[in-house]
Design a protein that fits this description.
The protein is α/β, with parallel strands linked by helices. 38% of the residues lie in helices and 26% in strands. The strands form two sheets. It has a six-stranded mixed beta sheet with strand order 6-7-8-3-9-10, sandwiched between helices. A four-stranded antiparallel beta sheet has the order 2-1-4-5, covered by helices on one side. A hairpin with a 2-residue loop joins strand 1 and strand 2. The structure holds adenosine-5'-triphosphate. The site of adenosine-5'-triphosphate (ATP) has 11 residues, from helix 1.
Length: 235
């Protein structure tokens, strides 16, 4: 098991927004976490990457307990996080944003090689490498946000709503990119409100509703589940 979240409870002040959830991600797995607005998906990802502390429970990654560790240590262990809204440094160029993704690495040669690999993989970023990140389209910014996270050489990548606000054609492109990341051996924990897209991509999925996991299992079976269909797939 690469990632294991056990009985995690998370609070904002007195409000408990994640109420004792357990989930796991195996090596080479794409796992989706779906559910409505406000269910606690973003909060869960923030806890995994060390940006929010647990009230109780534990998080293990790659054989080590990581809850309570600072976020930069968790990045170093191999957890990459692509936050909601493709937060990036708008006033910096595409190439500087990519370089920022490797800020905890010391291997200059490896960083240059990885920059080249990103440009091969995302040609659009290569052609725009000198432009400001703010000049990219929404889909291109999502590519950059993911490529920047890949620059930290993660074993697991957490993605928060990568399809948000994108045109359908770009959603397809982002889905293809996630599939390729999975095929390259990196595990993915994908948070999505677009349940159709997420269940189409993932091996397994969890459905989160007001802080609790109400269904989980094989993604293809969940996509056929009557309740999931009715509540999340518009069927
Ligand atoms: P969304 O898709 O809207 O981001 P989500 O499933 O990711 O939904 P969270 O963002 O994790 O949900 O929010 C879970 C709950 O925690 C919500 O009720 C939200 O209002 C609350 N919440 C989130 N961030 C904070 C905060 N900084 N302070 C207080 N409450 C918060």
């Amino acid at each position: 098991m690469l990632l294991e979240v056990r009985e995690a409870r998370i609070r904002y002040a007195k409000a408990e927004v994640v109420k004792g959830i357990s989930l796991h991600v195996d090596e080479r797995e794409i796992v989706a976490l779906i559910g409505p607005n406000g269910a606690g998906k973003t909060t869960t990802l923030r806890a995994i990457s060390g940006l929010k502390t647990l009230a109780s429970g534990s998080i293990n990654f790659d054989g080590r307990r990581i809850d309570g560790s600072p976020a930069h240590e968790i990045v170093k262990l191999g957890v990459g996080h692509v936050p909601e809204g493709r937060v990036m440094i708008a006033g910096m160029s595409v190439s500087d944003n990519l370089r920022m993704g490797a800020y905890l690495r010391k291997d200059r040669g490896g960083i240059s090689e990885d920059m080249q690999r990103m440009y091969e993989h995302f040609p659009i970023l290569k052609s725009r490498r000198k432009q400001l990140a703010s000049s990219l389209s929404g889909g291109e910014q999502q590519m950059l946000a993911v490529a920047r996270t890949l620059m930290s050489r993660p074993k697991l990548i957490l993605m928060d709503e990568p399809s948000m606000g994108l045109a359908p054609i770009m959603v397809e492109e982002v889905a293809r990119m996630i599939q390729e990341i999975g095929a390259s051996g990196i595990s993915v924990l994908l948070v999505e409100q677009n349940a159709n897209m997420a269940l189409g991509l993932a091996n397994r999925a969890y459905v989160l509703e007001v802080g609790e996991i109400c269904a989980c299992g094989n993604a293809a079976s969940l996509a056929e589940d009557e309740t999931v269909k009715r509540c999340y797939l518009g069927g």
